[in-house]
Amino acid sequence: MTIKIKPQDNKKGAYIDCDIKTLSKEELDSLKKALEEFGVLFFRNQDLDPKSYIKFAKNFGPPADYPMLKGLDGFPEITVVERKKTDIGPNFGGAVGKEKHSGFHTDSSYTKNPPRFTMLLAKVVPPRGQGNTEFSSQYMAYDKLPDEYKKKLENINGVFSSLGKISASRIEREKENSKDNNKKEIKSVHPIIKKINDKKTIYCSPGHLIKLENIDENEAKNLQDFLFNHQVNNSFRFSFEWEPNSLALWDNRSILHRAGSITGVDRILHRITIH
Protein backbone atom coordinates (compact mmCIF):
# COMPACT_ATOMS: atom_id res chain seq x y z
CA MET A 1 0.00 0.00 0.00
CA THR A 2 1.07 3.60 -0.52
CA ILE A 3 1.50 5.51 2.70
CA LYS A 4 -0.88 8.37 3.41
CA ILE A 5 0.36 11.43 5.30
CA LYS A 6 -2.24 13.57 7.07
CA PRO A 7 -0.73 16.76 8.52
CA GLN A 8 -2.38 18.25 11.62
CA ASP A 9 -3.32 21.90 12.07
CA ASN A 10 -0.34 24.24 11.68
CA LYS A 11 1.85 21.22 10.86
CA LYS A 12 1.82 20.09 14.48
CA GLY A 13 2.69 16.51 13.66
CA ALA A 14 1.16 14.22 11.06
CA TYR A 15 -0.82 10.98 11.11
CA ILE A 16 0.55 8.23 8.91
CA ASP A 17 -1.60 5.50 7.38
CA CYS A 18 0.59 2.51 6.50
CA ASP A 19 1.76 -0.94 7.57
CA ILE A 20 5.18 -0.44 9.17
CA LYS A 21 6.19 -4.06 8.56
CA THR A 22 5.88 -3.86 4.78
CA LEU A 23 7.38 -0.46 3.94
CA SER A 24 9.42 -0.13 0.75
CA LYS A 25 12.59 1.97 0.58
CA GLU A 26 10.67 4.72 -1.19
CA GLU A 27 8.00 4.72 1.53
CA LEU A 28 10.66 4.86 4.24
CA ASP A 29 12.23 7.83 2.50
CA SER A 30 8.81 9.52 2.49
CA LEU A 31 8.50 8.88 6.23
CA LYS A 32 11.91 10.41 6.90
CA LYS A 33 10.97 13.52 4.92
CA ALA A 34 7.68 13.76 6.79
CA LEU A 35 9.48 13.43 10.13
CA GLU A 36 11.80 16.28 9.15
CA GLU A 37 8.85 18.45 8.09
CA PHE A 38 6.35 17.75 10.88
CA GLY A 39 8.54 16.76 13.84
CA VAL A 40 6.19 14.04 15.11
CA LEU A 41 4.57 11.14 13.26
CA PHE A 42 1.61 9.17 14.64
CA PHE A 43 0.66 5.66 13.55
CA ARG A 44 -2.36 3.50 14.47
CA ASN A 45 -2.87 -0.27 14.38
CA GLN A 46 0.78 -1.36 14.34
CA ASP A 47 0.90 -4.86 15.85
CA LEU A 48 4.66 -5.16 16.32
CA ASP A 49 6.59 -7.76 18.29
CA PRO A 50 9.92 -6.58 19.80
CA LYS A 51 11.98 -7.81 16.83
CA SER A 52 9.79 -6.01 14.30
CA TYR A 53 9.76 -2.87 16.42
CA ILE A 54 13.55 -2.77 16.69
CA LYS A 55 13.90 -3.50 12.98
CA PHE A 56 11.69 -0.50 12.17
CA ALA A 57 13.63 1.73 14.58
CA LYS A 58 16.96 0.86 12.96
CA ASN A 59 15.76 2.44 9.71
CA PHE A 60 16.32 5.80 11.44
CA GLY A 61 19.64 5.04 13.13
CA PRO A 62 21.23 2.81 15.78
CA PRO A 63 19.27 2.40 19.04
CA ALA A 64 20.65 4.42 21.95
CA ASP A 65 21.36 3.07 25.41
CA TYR A 66 19.19 4.42 28.24
CA PRO A 67 21.55 4.80 31.20
CA MET A 68 18.96 4.78 33.99
CA LEU A 69 16.82 1.63 33.62
CA LYS A 70 17.33 -1.90 32.31
CA GLY A 71 15.66 -2.77 29.03
CA LEU A 72 13.00 -5.34 28.20
CA ASP A 73 14.17 -8.91 28.87
CA GLY A 74 16.00 -10.12 25.78
CA PHE A 75 15.63 -6.75 24.06
CA PRO A 76 17.80 -4.17 25.86
CA GLU A 77 17.08 -1.58 23.16
CA ILE A 78 13.49 -1.30 24.48
CA THR A 79 12.78 0.63 27.68
CA VAL A 80 9.47 -0.25 29.32
CA VAL A 81 7.67 2.98 30.21
CA GLU A 82 5.15 1.74 32.74
CA ARG A 83 2.55 3.19 35.07
CA LYS A 84 0.93 0.74 37.49
CA LYS A 85 -2.46 1.36 39.04
CA THR A 86 -0.81 0.88 42.43
CA ASP A 87 1.81 3.62 41.82
CA ILE A 88 1.44 6.65 44.04
CA GLY A 89 4.31 8.87 42.86
CA PRO A 90 4.57 11.02 39.71
CA ASN A 91 3.97 9.38 36.36
CA PHE A 92 7.20 8.31 34.61
CA GLY A 93 8.05 11.17 32.23
CA GLY A 94 5.25 13.36 33.54
CA ALA A 95 4.75 16.43 35.70
CA VAL A 96 6.46 16.51 39.09
CA GLY A 97 5.19 19.96 40.10
CA LYS A 98 2.45 22.47 39.38
CA GLU A 99 4.38 24.66 36.97
CA LYS A 100 3.02 24.88 33.44
CA HIS A 101 6.27 23.43 32.09
CA SER A 102 6.65 20.68 34.70
CA GLY A 103 7.46 17.32 33.15
CA PHE A 104 8.29 18.59 29.67
CA HIS A 105 11.65 17.27 28.53
CA THR A 106 13.81 15.85 25.77
CA ASP A 107 15.05 12.32 26.36
CA SER A 108 18.56 11.90 27.80
CA SER A 109 19.58 15.55 27.29
CA TYR A 110 22.11 15.01 30.10
CA THR A 111 24.20 12.69 27.90
CA LYS A 112 27.04 13.89 25.69
CA ASN A 113 25.33 12.58 22.56
CA PRO A 114 21.55 12.68 23.17
CA PRO A 115 19.32 10.59 20.92
CA ARG A 116 18.08 12.18 17.72
CA PHE A 117 14.74 10.40 17.74
CA THR A 118 12.36 8.73 20.17
CA MET A 119 9.56 6.30 19.48
CA LEU A 120 6.86 4.88 21.75
CA LEU A 121 4.66 1.85 21.05
CA ALA A 122 1.50 1.38 23.12
CA LYS A 123 1.00 -2.04 24.72
CA VAL A 124 -1.48 -1.34 27.53
CA VAL A 125 -3.45 1.89 27.49
CA PRO A 126 -5.73 3.58 30.05
CA PRO A 127 -9.29 4.73 29.36
CA ARG A 128 -9.69 7.55 26.84
CA GLY A 129 -8.51 10.90 28.12
CA GLN A 130 -5.91 9.53 30.54
CA GLY A 131 -2.20 9.22 29.89
CA ASN A 132 -2.06 11.17 26.63
CA THR A 133 1.42 12.29 25.59
CA GLU A 134 1.80 16.04 25.11
CA PHE A 135 4.25 17.57 22.66
CA SER A 136 5.58 21.09 22.08
CA SER A 137 7.37 22.18 18.90
CA GLN A 138 10.62 23.99 19.63
CA TYR A 139 10.94 25.13 16.03
CA MET A 140 7.75 27.11 16.60
CA ALA A 141 9.01 28.24 20.00
CA TYR A 142 12.21 29.60 18.44
CA ASP A 143 10.36 31.33 15.59
CA LYS A 144 8.15 33.15 18.10
CA LEU A 145 10.98 34.26 20.38
CA PRO A 146 11.36 38.05 20.54
CA ASP A 147 14.49 39.13 18.69
CA GLU A 148 16.18 40.29 21.90
CA TYR A 149 15.89 36.77 23.33
CA LYS A 150 17.10 35.15 20.13
CA LYS A 151 20.21 37.29 20.35
CA LYS A 152 20.65 36.70 24.08
CA LEU A 153 20.31 32.92 23.85
CA GLU A 154 22.55 32.47 20.81
CA ASN A 155 25.75 32.07 22.84
CA ILE A 156 24.36 30.52 26.02
CA ASN A 157 24.90 26.90 27.02
CA GLY A 158 22.76 24.82 29.32
CA VAL A 159 23.93 22.27 31.87
CA PHE A 160 21.63 19.24 31.92
CA SER A 161 21.56 16.63 34.68
CA SER A 162 20.14 13.13 35.10
CA LEU A 163 19.12 14.31 38.58
CA GLY A 164 17.07 17.24 37.27
CA LYS A 165 13.53 17.74 38.54
CA ILE A 166 11.98 15.12 36.28
CA SER A 167 14.14 12.40 37.85
CA ALA A 168 11.47 12.22 40.59
CA SER A 169 9.17 10.61 38.03
CA ARG A 170 11.49 7.57 37.74
CA ILE A 171 11.33 6.60 41.42
CA GLU A 172 8.76 3.79 41.12
CA ARG A 173 10.53 2.12 38.20
CA GLU A 174 13.99 2.52 39.72
CA LYS A 175 12.85 0.49 42.71
CA GLU A 176 12.27 -2.44 40.35
CA ASN A 177 14.56 -2.07 37.38
CA SER A 178 17.44 0.34 37.90
CA LYS A 179 20.87 -0.07 36.37
CA ASP A 180 23.79 -0.35 38.78
CA ASN A 181 25.12 3.11 37.92
CA ASN A 182 21.81 4.97 37.92
CA LYS A 183 22.53 6.78 41.19
CA LYS A 184 25.54 8.53 39.69
CA GLU A 185 24.77 11.96 38.31
CA ILE A 186 25.31 12.31 34.58
CA LYS A 187 25.77 15.85 33.31
CA SER A 188 26.37 17.35 29.91
CA VAL A 189 26.52 20.81 28.36
CA HIS A 190 24.68 21.78 25.17
CA PRO A 191 23.94 25.06 23.39
CA ILE A 192 20.42 26.34 24.02
CA ILE A 193 19.98 27.27 20.36
CA LYS A 194 20.74 24.56 17.82
CA LYS A 195 20.33 24.25 14.08
CA ILE A 196 18.53 21.03 13.07
CA ASN A 197 17.69 20.29 9.43
CA ASP A 198 18.78 23.86 8.55
CA LYS A 199 16.24 25.32 11.00
CA LYS A 200 16.97 26.86 14.37
CA THR A 201 15.33 25.32 17.40
CA ILE A 202 15.38 25.79 21.16
CA TYR A 203 17.20 22.85 22.73
CA CYS A 204 16.31 23.08 26.39
CA SER A 205 14.83 20.29 28.51
CA PRO A 206 13.01 21.89 31.47
CA GLY A 207 13.03 18.56 33.28
CA HIS A 208 16.83 18.29 33.12
CA LEU A 209 18.25 21.83 32.97
CA ILE A 210 20.08 22.82 36.16
CA LYS A 211 22.06 25.86 35.02
CA LEU A 212 22.55 28.37 32.23
CA GLU A 213 26.20 29.20 31.50
CA ASN A 214 27.85 32.37 30.18
CA ILE A 215 25.38 34.64 31.97
CA ASP A 216 25.01 36.42 35.32
CA GLU A 217 23.31 34.22 37.95
CA ASN A 218 20.38 36.57 38.63
CA GLU A 219 19.80 37.17 34.94
CA ALA A 220 20.03 33.42 34.33
CA LYS A 221 17.14 32.76 36.74
CA ASN A 222 14.89 35.30 35.02
CA LEU A 223 15.87 34.04 31.58
CA GLN A 224 15.22 30.43 32.58
CA ASP A 225 11.75 31.27 33.93
CA PHE A 226 10.89 33.12 30.73
CA LEU A 227 12.27 30.36 28.53
CA PHE A 228 10.48 27.47 30.27
CA ASN A 229 7.11 29.21 30.06
CA HIS A 230 7.66 30.29 26.46
CA GLN A 231 8.65 26.77 25.37
CA VAL A 232 5.27 25.32 26.35
CA ASN A 233 3.03 28.09 25.07
CA ASN A 234 -0.31 26.56 24.12
CA SER A 235 0.13 27.59 20.49
CA PHE A 236 3.15 25.25 20.17
CA ARG A 237 1.52 22.28 21.92
CA PHE A 238 -0.48 19.26 20.79
CA SER A 239 -1.52 15.96 22.32
CA PHE A 240 -1.73 12.31 21.26
CA GLU A 241 -4.33 9.94 22.68
CA TRP A 242 -3.05 6.38 22.91
CA GLU A 243 -4.83 3.32 21.59
CA PRO A 244 -3.46 -0.24 21.68
CA ASN A 245 -0.74 -0.67 19.02
CA SER A 246 -0.41 3.07 18.40
CA LEU A 247 3.09 4.34 17.72
CA ALA A 248 4.57 7.83 17.94
CA LEU A 249 7.93 8.81 16.44
CA TRP A 250 9.47 12.24 16.96
CA ASP A 251 12.59 14.35 16.61
CA ASN A 252 13.93 14.44 20.17
CA ARG A 253 16.10 17.46 19.37
CA SER A 254 13.30 19.83 18.41
CA ILE A 255 10.23 18.48 20.24
CA LEU A 256 9.51 18.56 23.96
CA HIS A 257 7.18 15.94 25.40
CA ARG A 258 5.67 14.78 28.66
CA ALA A 259 3.33 12.04 29.86
CA GLY A 260 -0.17 13.11 30.82
CA SER A 261 -1.61 12.33 34.23
CA ILE A 262 -2.77 8.81 35.07
CA THR A 263 -4.47 7.68 38.27
CA GLY A 264 -5.44 4.19 39.36
CA VAL A 265 -4.98 2.47 35.99
CA ASP A 266 -2.20 0.66 34.13
CA ARG A 267 -0.30 1.95 31.10
CA ILE A 268 2.63 0.28 29.33
CA LEU A 269 4.55 1.81 26.43
CA HIS A 270 7.70 0.44 24.82
CA ARG A 271 10.29 3.11 24.07
CA ILE A 272 13.26 3.10 21.72
CA THR A 273 15.60 6.07 21.43
CA ILE A 274 17.79 6.43 18.35
CA HIS A 275 21.14 8.06 17.65
- What oligomeric state do these chains adopt? single chain
Q: Class, according to the CATH hierarchy?
A: Alpha Beta
Give the overall average pLDDT.
Answer: 93
Specify the CATH architecture: 4-Layer Sandwich
Can you describe what's shown?
- The chain has 275 residues and is of the alpha+beta class.
- 21% of the residues lie in helices and 27% in strands.
- It contains 6 helices and 15 strands.
- The protein has a 7-stranded mixed sheet, with helices on one face. The chain has a 3-stranded antiparallel sheet with strand order 12-6-14. Strands 8-7-11 form a 3-stranded antiparallel sheet.
- The longest helix is centred in the C-terminal third of the chain and has 15 residues, at 217-231.
- The model has no long low-confidence stretch (mean pLDDT 93).
Task: Summarize it.
The chain has 275 residues and is an alpha+beta fold. The two termini are 29 Å apart.
Features:
275 residues, seven-stranded mixed sheet, Double-stranded beta-helix, alpha+beta, globular, 6 helices
Helix and strand layout, with pairings?
Blueprint: E1 4-7, E2 14-17, H1 25-38, E3 40-43, H2 50-57, E4 79-83, E5 117-124, E6 133-137, H3 138-143, H4 147-153, E7 157-161, H5 171-177, E8 187-191, E9 193-196, E10 199-202, E11 209-212, H6 217-231, E12 237-240, E13 247-251, E14 255-259, E15 267-274
Parallel strand pairs: 2-3
Antiparallel strand pairs: 1-2, 3-13, 4-15, 5-13, 5-15, 6-12, 6-14, 7-8, 7-11, 9-10
